[in-house]
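Hi everyone, sorry if this is the wrong subforum. Our group has a chain we'd like a structural model of before ordering constructs, and none of us has done structure prediction before. Sequence below.
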Amino acid sequence: MHRIQKFILTMLITHPQSKYSELKPRHMEGSKFTYHLQKMINQQLVQKNQDGTYSLTSKGKLFADRFELDTLTVLEQPRIVCLVACYEPSKGWLLFTRNQQPTIHMAGFAKVDVEFGSMLHDQVSRAFTDLSGLEVALNYRAHGYVTQKTPDGELESRVMIHLYYGENPSGELRLQTDSGTFGWYLDDELTNMPNLIPSTVPLMTKLQQSPSPFFFEETYQLA
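Answer:
Right subforum, don't worry. Here is the predicted structure as tokens:
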């Protein structure tokens, strides 16, 4: 973010409704300041109100929540994902092999996309059924952080995970999707599975050992 945009953001964080004359520093060139103000309006971070003042939009307030005033930097927050662990005693674990980065060609629990607007549990249940074709009663079982690094030790991804679990699903499994493929795997098949996402088996173990919701935090280095 440009320093002028950081200045505008700082002003509107501390002065929620400000006139143009209050926002623009006295000695700053007007056209340059207006350019960056308009850019933030176009990005839907700032809005011009009917009374002529400027304020942060809802999107701007969400962005401001990650903005550190002391250092004028945007805090890097982990991406939030929801995983569904599904188990059928006769078939084993339902795993999803991704065809997209950052874990392309690797298998793990099904990842479902959720959005703001409705209850998380309901969204996860619907999204899992839409993705897999299966229906299953899901329970919230865990949350935590997983960091993955390259073989050279560079940060590749950091996510916050909400983990749901269900057994004995009904319906017909949709093997192929746009984002990957599903398959059932028994425990002994997982032992020497080279493309397994590293956090998968440890989470399986914790799911089986802990009857109540748990927290986890793990870092893995991909081969």
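For your construct planning: The CA atoms of residues 134 and 171 lie 5 Å apart. DSSP finds seven helices and 15 strands in the chain.
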